[in-house]
Design goal:
Elements: H1 3-54, H2 59-62, H3 65-78, H4 80-109, H5 114-128, H6 132-143, H7 147-171, H8 175-183, H9 188-225, H10 231-240, H11 244-272, H12 274-277
Helix pairs in contact: 3-11, 4-7, 4-9, 4-10, 6-7, 6-9, 7-9, 9-10, 9-11, 10-11
């Protein structure tokens, strides 16, 4: 056995024992947190339903959990819920890939030129300050009332956050590591692929997590303005007829979508950052 193998074996033995002790603790802590969160949600819904049944809460203004469940069950039975989910999910997925992943790539590429990054900084800040609700009507006019305009709105909602996070992560990579790579004759492209991209990956993932909510909000806003299907269309239709049951049912679906997409990003994080945990 070589000296390196001996060192690796010793390091592994040292790390294994604490990991075995901390894993049960972290799993127990997570179970306790999830249990408390579920209890809070159940208590809130029970109090809401009790108040609505007793007449303390106006069902016309605030509906009730029972009525919301009834609307959701009806939409599932007619297939309307699955149609709306499919439309909105398609808009979110395509726009998210273009905006969030594309923005992350652009942010990482800005590392190549500090001059270009400094030159574009005020323009990035200016674009990022524009609310999506202000540009959504223009997107509908420019790209039509179909899928393309919603995808553009979602991409616009995501691109700046991902770009900024990725560039900031690239700037946080250890400069000593980059100097060491240069001393061994590494090219800038090698430094980018071997150090910058892996080192900034946690920042990229953080940007993707932030953009889950922004992406779904962008799709819903686009559907508010012009659509014939989608979760946003359901919400705006219900609000125009003062059907709070339908409005809140759509809000519940939006929250469920955010949770599901968030879980997918968590799964992606476990895959991409597996080396970091090791």
């Amino acid at each position: 056995m070589t000296a390196i193998q001996i060192e690796e074996a010793a390091t592994g033995a040292v790390r294994t024992a604490p990991e075995r002790r901390t894993r049960p603790r972290s799993s127990r802590r997570r179970s306790v947190l999830v249990s408390i969160q579920i209890a809070i949600v159940v208590a809130f819904l029970a109090a809401w339903q009790l108040g609505a049944s007793a007449g303390w809460i106006s069902t016309f203004l605030f509906s009730s959990p029972g009525q919301i469940v009834t609307v959701l069950a009806q939409n599932v039975g007619t297939g309307e819920l699955w149609t709306d989910l499919g439309v909105t999910a398609q808009e979110v997925l395509i726009g998210f890939v273009i905006g969030a992943l594309g923005g992350s790539l652009l942010g990482l590429l800005l590392w190549y030129s500090r001059f270009v990054a400094d030159l574009s900084a005020p323009f990035i800040t200016a674009i990022g300050s524009i609310p999506v609700l202000a540009v959504a009507p223009m997107m509908i006019i420019w790209f039509g009332t179909g899928l393309v305009s919603k995808v553009v709105i979602v991409a616009f909602s995501c691109v700046i956050v991902s770009l900024t996070n990725a560039y900031r992560g690239a700037q946080k990579v250890d400069t000593d590591l980059l100097d060491l790579m240069r001393s061994f004759g590494s090219s800038k492209t090698q430094a980018f692929t071997k150090a910058i991209v892996p080192g900034a990956m946690s920042w990229v993932i953080a940007g993707l997590k932030l953009n889950v909510g922004f992406a779904i909000i962008g799709a819903v806003v686009g559907e508010f303005i012009s659509s014939s299907a989608g979760v946003g269309h359901t919400i705006v239709t219900g609000s125009s007829s003062f059907a709070m049951n339908q409005v809140l049912a759509g809000v519940v679906v939006v929250m469920a979508m955010v949770l599901v997409f968030g879980l997918l990003i968590d799964l992606l994080e476990r895959v991409l950052l597996r080396w970091d945990r090791r």
